[in-house]
Amino acid sequence: MIESIAKYFKQGGELSRNLPTFEFRSQQLQMAEAVHRALEQGHPMMVEAGTGTGKSLAYLLPAIQWALAHDKRVVISTYTKTLQEQILNHDIPLLRDTLGLPFRYSLCMGNENYLSLRRMKRAGQSGLFNNVQEEEQLTETFKWIHRTETGFKSDLPFEPLPSVWEEVGRQKDLCLGKQCETYDSCFYFKERRKWFSAHLLVVNHHLFFANIANNGAVLPRYDAVIFDEAQNLEEAATSFLGLEISNSGLLYFLDRFYNPKTRRGTLTRLPDQLTGEVRKRVTQARLAVEAFFENLLDAYGRQDRTLRFYRPPTLNNNVFLPLQELHEALKSLQTGLVAEEDLLEVTAAANRVFEINNTLSALLNHNMKEYVYWLEIVRKKRLTRATLRGVPIRIREELQEQVFSKIDRVVLTSATLSTNQNFDHLKERLGIEPKEELILDSPFDYKTQALLYIASDLPEPSAKVEEYIPALAERALELIRASGGKTFVLFTSYDTLNRVHRLLDPQLQSYQILKQGELSPTRMIQRFKEKPSVIFGTSSFWQGVDIPGEALTMVIITKLPFDVPSEPLIEARLEDLRRQSINPFRHYQIPRAIIQLRQGFGRLIRKRTDKGVVAILDSRLARRGYGKQFVDSLPPCSQAQTIAEVETFLSNGLQKVVEK
């Protein structure tokens, strides 16, 4: 069977005969054979495939062939939307159309991503909105129904307001299933029927863990799973398993059900004689929520901050009883309803109130052991948002129990999984013991394609702000000018980004400046590709961004991407490691920062003809003992310490790459 995989990837094989642009890469062949072994023999494996390996084809082809041969189903799970779109819009069509493989596949998305035809119809009859923009969006959505084939929220020609999508989007608790008049034409169920006949299911990590949390009720049964961008599994699982309650979220929920000021909401669809008691209870609950969060903000301040709770806060939960009474009123209301749709709406609201009450109690009483709890306060124009959060400190036991012990065929892959040439860090964090481990170098010639510039003379990030920021900005300016724009400037915090941007913006008027927060990341990338630009970005631009060609010739990394140790979750994880007598800096902070740095570095070279410079403006790389670990983790490339060397490389580098 291994030979049948090699026939696709080898020199002169199926891919090279059918694709004029295909290049043989020994690393791709090695990975494809390893993935095939894992699927055939039924064991977990980890494989790091350097940028340019073509890893998505290297796991898709073995997955397709195995699924076809054995009538099995494989889940492909990604972290970023960019990679998911590449798989769906490029890789899978290429394999189907070019090689003629007769496999079936489906994109699986969560409930909330689909338009509900029944709810859409009802929203048009209800007069729910008193806002012109909301009404206009509702009208445009009605027109869009006749053009869309999928009903995906992301396919709308505009970004719908949350208030609009809440009324027209599919919600699991409000679904009538086969009893619905629109069941046969329902976008969600039409797609879901395809899922059960598919060989490949393409999902994101969030939906994968939603399926785990719902005891497998979200996705069809599957026989193997391939996690791409697997370095993000811990964070994705932690986020999904967490608890969260905010004043804005609670008030939004209550107002959507019934807003006493506008007298609009779900309840207004029901007869007044039935809903009087419930309206009264909604109003009382809303007042209690406002009072609770006012007390919370009085106690902990109204300035932007994140505050960890080491013990349960001494706050009176004056919301519990009003929510309990609202829940009871909703249960009573159910008995008087005849229409199935109305009963469904009220039942869903009752369940949600019950869930909210339990979640808030758990957050205030710290009911979940081995969780870390904190409060986030963010000042907004209309409302100071206060959010209570609680997340598990470690999830390895949960992953082991719910994923790795239940399915043998698990492949974890990425361009950045290892530190110090091994997978020890991620294996420990995720609780997986792969039978096979493989680290494959990139086929790119980094020694001629890339230059690493290390600014060893700059102040360290711990220096005084008035000393550090101007020096950082000045060096970034020199590098941007050397590259003629075409630059990513990557930050680890919005504060530093904003400070540097304020200093540089007036001096970079000849370039298009794109600052994260002013546009969506997708729109920023579109504009970046259209003309020479400088992007000032944070986490969204460290990974999952693919810009091959001359548009990007410089990546400036302003600071080594260490997690902020005072962030509640990070702090709790460091404490957890110390309790186990494990050095958290050596065994957690450095490995995580190395993986993130490698992701940032990987934005630069995406093709064999690409060339450019990665500039790291954190002098700790040269001054601290651990700096060598970071440098050694990067692809082997030439190094520079002066701007003149950078300018020389950029002026000569392209010619060298083209000649090669």
What does this structure look like?
By secondary structure, the protein is of the alpha/beta class. It has 26 helices and 18 strands. The chain is 49% helix and 13% strand. The strands form 3 sheets. It has a 7-stranded parallel beta sheet, sandwiched between helices. Strands 14-15-13-16-17-12-18 form a 7-stranded parallel beta sheet, sandwiched between helices. Strand 8 and strand 9 (385-392) form a beta hairpin. The protein is globular, with a radius of gyration of 27 Å. The two termini are 36 Å apart.
Give a short account of the largest sheet: 7 strands, parallel
N- to C-terminal distance: 36 Å
Structural class: alpha/beta
Number of helices: 26
CATH superfamily of the largest domain: P-loop containing nucleotide triphosphate hydrolases
What share of residues is helical? 40-55%
Question: Which key features would you list for this structure?
Answer:
seven-stranded parallel beta sheet, 4 domains, alpha/beta, Rossmann fold, disordered C terminus, 13% strand, 26 helices, 660 residues
Please specify the SSE layout and strand pairing.
Elements: H1 2-9, H2 14-18, H3 26-41, E1 45-49, H4 55-70, E2 74-78, H5 81-99, E3 105-107, H6 117-126, H7 132-145, H8 162-168, H9 187-195, E4 200-204, H10 205-213, E5 224-227, H11 233-241, E6 243-246, H12 247-257, H13 272-300, E7 305-309, H14 320-334, H15 340-365, E8 371-378, E9 385-392, H16 396-404, E10 410-414, H17 424-430, E11 436-440, H18 446-449, E12 450-454, H19 465-483, E13 487-490, H20 494-504, E14 512-515, H21 521-530, E15 533-537, E16 554-557, H22 568-579, H23 584-601, E17 612-616, H24 620-623, H25 627-633, E18 638-640, H26 643-659
Parallel strand pairs: 1-10, 1-11, 2-4, 2-5, 3-4, 5-10, 12-17, 12-18, 13-15, 13-16, 14-15, 16-17
Antiparallel strand pairs: 6-9, 7-8, 8-9
Helix pairs in contact: 1-3, 3-4, 4-5, 6-7, 10-11, 12-13, 13-14, 14-15, 19-20, 19-26
